[in-house]
Amino acid sequence: MNNDLYILPNATEPQVLHSSLPLHPILVVAALAISLVSFALWCVQDYRLYKSLGPGGPPYNVYGWVLTSFIVRPYTLSAHDTTWTGDYPENAAHKEILALPNRKGSRPLILGIAPQRQFSQNPGPSMNARVTSLFTSLVLRNPRSLQQNLSSLEKHNIALFVHPSLLAKPQNLPEVATVSRGELGHIHGDASMHLYFSPADAKEIIEKGWAERHRCARTAPWWLGGRKYSWKIGDTFLIVYAPRNEEELEILQTLLRASARFMTGEETVVAPLKDDQEMEHEHDHCRRKSAPAA
């Protein structure tokens, strides 16, 4: 009998495998160096983008960038998912929202998480003043429902708030009104704005091309706890694109009213007036006052 059969290795015992292609330490160091350089370049580029957004909610410095890019980002929607509406209801939108036309052209370029800004299709500088005027008009026409102040989220921009008398009765308001400390939304320097809407209205507004979701407007993924209102932002907080002309400014009047009705819980909220409409309204009021009694 061949004695070689008795000197075969035991298959049940672990065998040490010797690679014929050992990984050279220089290759490991090179791979690590390339990874570190790539990460450093990404950080520089991402920080420059953060600074280009201008001041917003987080500190406008390296700390704010680190907070946004490494702490907040895991909880956010990807930039490609901000037009997703699958978690909104199919019905119950206001009839004025259902009647909105589709926005003409492609969507503008929206960048950033916090802050979030519009980088294309920007109107002239006068549009910001006109949008701000609509904010003011909405408050003046609904003084018992709304107030205007600096944004608690952005800290640098004018915002609309639910009137304190209504906030004192949270049972009559949507939950997000309390979470946002009453803030409906605010305007940005580029004339875009963030606004809250009812879920059904938000679905229509996004699908018709007038807005998209804030990157934090979501329920956190299950692996991050599945929390609602991450960073004090609800899932119907939308960035509304800056109006480009008179027609779109009139669309914004409808959107502002819809936001106010949802956040105040009052269907009687009236829409704001544009500057020319405000003047005409004042003239009509003066004519009625000066008209002789019948």
UniProtKB/TrEMBL annotation:
Keyword Chloroplast: no
Swiss-Prot/TrEMBL keywords: Membrane, Transmembrane, Transmembrane helix
Ranges where the Luciferase domain occurs: 181-259
Signal peptide segment: none
Chain segments annotated as coiled-coil in the UniProt record: none
Feature: compositional bias, Basic and acidic residues: 275-285
Keyword Translocase recorded: no
Region of interest: Disordered: 275-294
InterPro entries: Luciferase, Luciferase_dom
Transmembrane segments: 23-44
The name this protein goes by in its record: Luciferase domain-containing protein
Organism, as annotated: Exophiala oligosperma
